[in-house]
What we know:
By secondary structure, the protein is of the alpha+beta class. Helices cover about 35% and strands about 25% of the residues. Helix 1 packs across helix 2 (about 40-50), helix 1 (about 25-40) crosses helix 3 and helix 1 (about 25-40) packs across helix 4.
Amino acid sequence: MQSSHDTRVVGGVEARGRQHDVPDLSTVWLRVFLEVARHGSFTVAARTLGWTQSAVSRQISSLEASLGGAPLFDRLARGVRLTEAGRVLVPHAESVVERLHGAGRELAALRKVAGGRLRVGAFATADAALVPRAMAAFQARHPGVRLTREEGFTRALLDRLTADHLDLAVVSTTGRAPLDAYTLHHLLDESLYVAVPAGHPLSAEPSVRLPQLADADWISGGSRPEGTLLDAALRHGFRPRVTHVVAEWTAKQGYVAAGLGVTLIPALAAESVRPDIALLPVLDEDAPARAVYAATVRGRSLAPAAEAFLAALRDSAARIPGTRAT
């Protein structure tokens, strides 16, 4: 014997309720109902909707049947008048129709990139020039979009992306983060510079090869070169001696300026270097130092706002010196 209660899964949540407690209403019925209530006439409502009077009458009859059969209108000699049931229904019908209109307006704004939100993440050096320039251009073109940004390491940004806390993340190949689960929109390949004190013996050279600095003291974001920019030194056959672990880019420059060692600076951060240190381009014919991507979760559709921000990122990437942009 079937229970008078049923179980349904709605939006991933198990819902229990008595069968037929919630009527299955057509929004067309509600729209027709409101037109008839507004005009007090099936004939005028039909003319407003561009329907026949009989079609309007059928819609009202269907609505009444779905709500248990109670009449919503008293049929008078001239026109109709709301019953008590009809008066109760009016504010609810207005609320449903207005919510649907509101949803339509918001969806239209999303398509036009005139509303909605966009959550962007980026690693630290991308925030030096690449991302803020893209943000400025995006906000000038699409001021109605709520744009938020957060900073982090590539691995953490990818985790935030997977958990749906970000819509797009600017990431790099530094750190050997697994990228296979993501759609990668290539932005640029960037070269490296060595930052040395202004009076360093190599400071006047036009470029340098990393083995020339094999005996130098290095300032790095980690005590081991693996997974950092100093991976490039391992490719050249030497293990750099890291004497100071400093995470923040401006602090690294301070250590270099004080003569405490040398450090690697990626092209994305080169424009913000202080004047009392020298930047030497690193010659590395084997491969660029790292690739930079805008990452999205594979299989998730890209919202129009994310598409527009991706275009702004590509425009910004084309203006970064020392990079090869797509």
